[in-house]
Amino acid sequence: MTIPADPPSAQDILAAAARIAPYAHATPVLRSRGIDALAGCELHFKAEHLQRAGAFKFRGACNAVFALDDARAAAGVVTHSSGNHGAALALAARLRGIACHVVVPEGALRSKVAAIAAYGATLHTSAPTTAAREAKCAEVQSATGATLVHPYTNPWVIAGQGTAAMELLNTVDGLDLLVAPVGGGGLSSGTALAAAAFAPQCRAIGAEPSGAADTFESLRRGERVAQFTPDTVCDGLRTLVGEPNFALLRRLRVQVVTVDDDATVAAMRLFWQRCKQLIEPSSAIALAAVLGHREIFAGRRVGVILSGGNVDLDALPGLFAR
Amino acid sequence: MTIPADPPSAQDILAAAARIAPYAHATPVLRSRGIDALAGCELHFKAEHLQRAGAFKFRGACNAVFALDDARAAAGVVTHSSGNHGAALALAARLRGIACHVVVPEGALRSKVAAIAAYGATLHTSAPTTAAREAKCAEVQSATGATLVHPYTNPWVIAGQGTAAMELLNTVDGLDLLVAPVGGGGLSSGTALAAAAFAPQCRAIGAEPSGAADTFESLRRGERVAQFTPDTVCDGLRTLVGEPNFALLRRLRVQVVTVDDDATVAAMRLFWQRCKQLIEPSSAIALAAVLGHREIFAGRRVGVILSGGNVDLDALPGLFAR
């Protein structure tokens, strides 16, 4: 099977769910009466920070790795990723027993790079520009024959990410709204696809950092913003939305709301404190969106995709460096 | 019912379990294949950081509050606690609809004091000495008629704390060892009691900070050390072991091992990173004991009581104060 040219469908999400079932965790759905009271709505948190490799990314990566036919798989896979997708692809490749190459930009978060290496991937460093990392990827591809598994535009990846929302919709009846963070758009477009297919009354909402609001702006303009300089604490959401992801979000009429970093950090702190769950800023933004946009969420039953928990503990000097 | 004079028995643990069942969470048991591999044994973590009010303390406090007869209960309860027990008692009292007074030493951890206040208790401040806080407690008792619920010597409290181990033993078959942190000895003596009663082949081990190793020293000497100056990051374990707690630990031949703070912080970091669970230092010490004492734990099936998750987030400036 070569990478499909068409955008994924509901059928592809079902196929992904079956394909990753032996490897991925069916993560729990968490509740907090305290946070419900603060938010004024009923929140159901899909705990993807408890997914293997610490983020939803394992779903898409695993789907892509196991969708390859044996001949293609034998040459391995390659990707560029500063973080969770790299680790997820490395783990998926190890589970299939194939090689994995990850192109990491200089200056990437140390804890995330260490995780990629720990799962046995071969690391390649590039300058931190899109052009440089794509060039390095192409170089590795031509040298090894590895298949590129793009972090968010690959249709298998999008379908895989949609399985988190599908599981949540299967677990919790009557969700009115489903909130997911927006970075490259793999998770948000997969979530929107799952909602449209499996719970048409449920509306998907994207949460995007104010300092990286290219998707918000692209939807407003009706065309994809091609350049921007992100400035946000959400290290997983600094990417420009992908073309197929933008097309899906637009076609499915997904509303994207923006969230300031201060609100995201406050929401993260609240969730750590109340739920004792270590979620990363790029996850907490979805809760922050709920707390900051009562006009959308008040009184509703809301699913929140907590995308990951790969917090950089080196950035927490208080307890760990004494 | 007045506070029993005798130390608690296995029957008291069973009674406590029935009494608190409508209010307490039956917390999950967590696994980590990564940590098992590092530790060289099979670990089953009892997740009391997910207990109500964020610690096992709710079990004992709830048992004590609901064991009181109506007449006694009407006058309320009082305790001295710098932290988790105060919050737990406040919540239990609120659930029964009675008053709760908490004597808090000056300089107590801000986040824990805030939690006590949030559960509706009346706060009383005292100097941070045993004499001062006991005097203030006596003052509140005589003014209000409230019943003192001591954080760890109260037999209902000990029996209540033992329900965590009982649940773990009911959930996981064939545990060889059960590790619990040692502070005042409420949890460790309750755990030892549960192990002796419900799984006689399972040995209870206590984990105590090197900088607050009065129980270790008391067991070595065969008599209770009466004075010491604690110096440890484990803010929940700075107390001297209680008399009835020491008597139980001695009678049940519990082995106590000591752990340096560096090892505790490293274990906490490991657990945060791998399991995305926010456990406090006073909990992480139990995992640190396992990682540091392979001669005891290697190859065994081990239960670990993760006692609580009330981390002081103000002590983590990196992400929260930018």
From TrEMBL, chains A, B:
Keywords: Pyridoxal phosphate. CDD domains: Thr-dehyd (cd01562). The keyword Transcription regulation does not apply. It comes from the Bacteria. Residues 24-308 form the Tryptophan synthase beta chain-like PALP domain. SUPFAM superfamilies: Tryptophan synthase beta subunit-like PLP-dependent enzymes (SSF53686). Its cofactor is pyridoxal 5'-phosphate. The keyword S-adenosyl-L-methionine does not apply. This is Pyridoxal-phosphate dependent enzyme. It comes from Luteimonas galliterrae. The lineage of its organism: Bacteria, Pseudomonadati, Pseudomonadota, Gammaproteobacteria, Lysobacterales.
